[in-house]
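Consider the following assembly input.
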Amino acid sequence: MGLFTELKDSISRVTERLFSEQEPKRIGIYGPPNAGKTTLANRIARDWTGDAVGTESHIPHETRRARRKEGVEIERNGKTVTIDIVDTPGVTTKVDYEEFTDEMEEDDAIRRSREATEGVAEAMHWLREDVDGVIYVLDSAEDPITQVNTMLIGIIESRDLPVLIFANKIDLDESSVKRIEDAFPQHKTVPLSAKEGENMDEVYESIAEYFG
Amino acid sequence: MPKATNADEPDAPDGVQIDLISGERMDGMATMEKIRMILDGVHEGNIVILEEGLTPDEESRLIEVTMSEISPNEFNGIEIETYPRSDTRDSSLLGRIMGSNESTAKLTVIGPANQIETLHKDETLISALVSRD
């Protein structure tokens, strides 16, 4: 390779790095269905931009398409980080439309389950290709040691993505943050209630620290 | 792979087929070949047991492909259980017998979601209940 070509490549690499550092980080919000991912995404988006990301519901798979809120600028303790929040459907290995038939007509339940499966497949694809970091949301009132959680954390670790675990729903009596800390001791766990807005200061400090 | 039993066929044996797939057989396969083999078995109602599990990337693709094949009243997904990986795993009896230091050396059980129910799981035991339908 000639001197000129080497110099050109070197300048190109430095330029790319400079520009990539200025681009917002794409932070995927992952976790099982009904852990409160959309509630958290909405809380963050409303606090820093005034707009919500998506609709919240108690019915599993309310979020059936990955939704992005761009350019969310979070500032804490002198650190500022600009992120694109990607709210993803709850990851699962099974979707049965009959689970929704108590809440809606069969046709709607079938459509919902089809959209949910497409959404989960899309979320897995995003995880392999398109996110720079992960916020993994767990319901602290539920047992965190499930196969899907273990697999997802393993997949995230294998991609060397920075990950923060958020133990959501600490407002519930059955909540146990320690159970989550014990399940995934290799990662920082932040307790919160996205619904009630509890401990959001620590949430934002952790986001600024981990993804800034 | 042998064909699964089919309860609708009059002469079909009454039972659930279990495919025990060795690490050696999986070694020579590409990711999509492994996933196809697993899901073809599960679609036929079989329980698939992998001696050496899947890599994280393969697990991610398995979930993705499974989602694309879910269909109302026909196939509603998979149930999957794996011994959790741990730092002590390689010094276990199975690890020593198999002579493997690969981090993917883990036993994985996969079955149709509507037929397999995990009763108990810890680092040394997976207990599952398998029903015919």
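Confidence is low (pLDDT under 50) at residues 86-102 of chain B. Ask yourself how this observation constrains the way the partners meet.
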